[in-house]
Amino acid sequence: MTTESWHTLFGMAGYLVVMIAIGLWYARRSNSNPEEYFLGKRGLGPWVAAMSAEASDMSGWLLMGLPGVAYFTGSGEAFWTAVGLAVGTWINWLIVAKRLRTYSQVANNAITLPDFFSNRFHDKRRILMSIAAVIILVFFSIYAGSQFITFGKLFGYVFGADQYYPVMVILGAVLVLAYTLLGGFLAESMTDLIQGLMMFCAIILVLGVGFVHAGGFGRIAENLGDFPRFLDIFGIAVPVDASGAAVAGVQTQAVVQGKPQFGPGADYSFLNILSCLAWGLGYFGMPQVLLRFMAIKSTSKIRESRIIAVSWCFISLVVAVCIGLTGRAIFPGLLTSAGTAETIFLHLARNFFPPVLAGLVISGILAASMSSSDSYMLIASSALANDLFKGLIKKDAGEALVMWVARITMLLVMVFGVAVALSGNQSIFRIVSYAWAGLGAGFGPLMLFSLFWKRTTLPAAIAGMLSGGSMVILWKEVISKTHPALGVYELLPAFILSCLVIFVVSLLTKAPSKGILQEFETARTVEF
Fold first, then answer.
1. How does strand 259-260 pair with strand 235-236?
2. For the structural domain made of 3-525, what CATH number should be given?
């Protein structure tokens, strides 16, 4: 490894030491009971709630996945995906945050998302809680794998050798496990605040310096203008291989005399745009975001949190897309596959910053991945320990036993996530999109109906959750492959189906009890 690599690693190591120290500090406060460990006793202030929600949401996808899409196929898909996420973030904070904060406390002080659904519908047999917990375990384990891929790519790049990828996947996973085990939700949220700020500074710095090196907007537009449909938000660039065929999967794009080869490009249809905008629907079912709503100190703090979160999200998404486009203008033929394109942020940082400073900037990716993977592991562990183990298997389990089960679950989730990361699919964007769809369709429709339609019934909730989660898998693996016109992002049809199922089954089944209706009205008017 070169001296430059060691200096870069030194900058990154300093950042890691600080994050682990925070985990140790909060370990003293976060291990007293499950409510403290899993929800921080509902004590998050506006900045911590906002930044931890966004940092845990965006993940390494923001600094690697999204810029990689913009670098490889141009502005079309990246732009509309960013629009969908920005709008979804705003609507989620606007209509869901306050109601969920109050309702989760009214519903017998629920501390996890499955717990809330079960309490909301007075599900005494815990069927809804069990289904929700299984969905979280499956899709969050996949989600964690996407973050471990980020670790592997990041450290493999720093060390300059692909053979380090498996080792670095495992090392990154162990580091995240260590400080999440120690500190729980409060440590996770406090580190996410720092990591969110770190991510923001990193992408702003990289774009600013890259923009200057590229020669400004005019020069960037001129360079990218040579690639058909690259800057067209209603089109998509089509990288081709040496035979002129469109590049797919792990295939590589042809480069002739330093110039990447593209086909004539293609229209980005209304269906394609709708698929990208559908990313915004996922927010209504994202546990890592919804838990922050439940943990805010009081409803009076939500407006301030919303302003912080939406501003951070909008600026970060715009900058991430611009990093991909600027990177293509500066290094047009450097990265020749969808997977390698996701390292464009790293190349810009290493080429334009001194090694130690580059290490700190690159730590923005560490921040993004750690802030997400710790959330995924904590939420998955709470689903098994609090919702399945205590809620269904051993209802008289003590607090100490529940927390030990949670820690063991984290270890198992880490192992599964590492297996996903080492499975061969190294596109962060694609893995995240699958998990995002599963959680968004499984929980999103039910969350909206639970909060805003009092006629929603328990059978409808169960049917809606099952239909949404299963349709994601069915659409992705079977239906979308039968005809090109059905290649819409699986979240959209699954979300619509779940909404229809909840609505129809609610009307066909017995109305909720007076107790449920009374709680609904209380949650609608009460302030905490």
1. unpaired
2. 1.20.1730.10
